[in-house]
Amino acid sequence: MKILVLSGSPRPSGNTAAMVAAFSDGAREAGHDVTVVEVCKKKIAGCLACEYCHTKGEGRCIQQDDMQEIYPVLKEAKMIVLASPVYYHSFTGQLQCAINRIYALDKPKNLKKAALILSSGSNHVYCGAFYEYQSSFLNYLHLEDMGIFTAYGKENKSEELLSQLREAGRKLK
Fold first, then answer.
1. pTM
2. Where exactly are the transmembrane stretches of this chain (predicted)?
3. What's the number of domains the chain is made of?
4. Exposure winner among 50, 116, 146, 156, fewest CB in 10 A?
5. With helix as H, strand as E and coil as C, how does the chain read?
6. Is the model more confident about 89 or about 112?
């Protein structure tokens, strides 16, 4: 299965990156093709709401930025994983821009599954990310939920958490 991980962490060695690496390693061990895109290293602007993609663009965004590298991977992916630290009740701004730009494709035809990976300093800040994941990805795109994985405080980078994520990646079918 082709899996696209959109990682919204600006810290390459941070907690979210460790969680993504563990999940991706497990999925690769199970034979899946995993592409991790660190959106914070990309130049991705927010959606302009110009509707070019749904009129003249025929599913192509008018903006010529790094999102153009992600669209082909997204079109082939059967699973999408959203990964983000939570600083203020939802995804990082960089990840949110990439999520909003999926609008150009409307409902990527091959996507069937999704998972969510979140890290924070507190366990009471995930509601915004949960809502968007469940409403936009699971309900609107009709994707099967393959798991929500969260860590806060001392759980971050714990071997127990990383083992759980590796195992979740290994069990994907």
1. 0.96
2. none
3. 1
4. 50
5. CEEEEEECCCCCCCHHHHHHHHHHHHHHHCCCEEEEEEHHHCCCCCCCCCCHHHCCCCCCCCCCCCHHHHHHHHHHCCEEEEEEECCCCCCCHHHHHHHHHHHHHCCCCCCCEEEEEEEECCCCCCHHHHHHHHHHHHHHCCCEEEEEEEEEHHHCCCHHHHHHHHHHHHCCC
6. 112
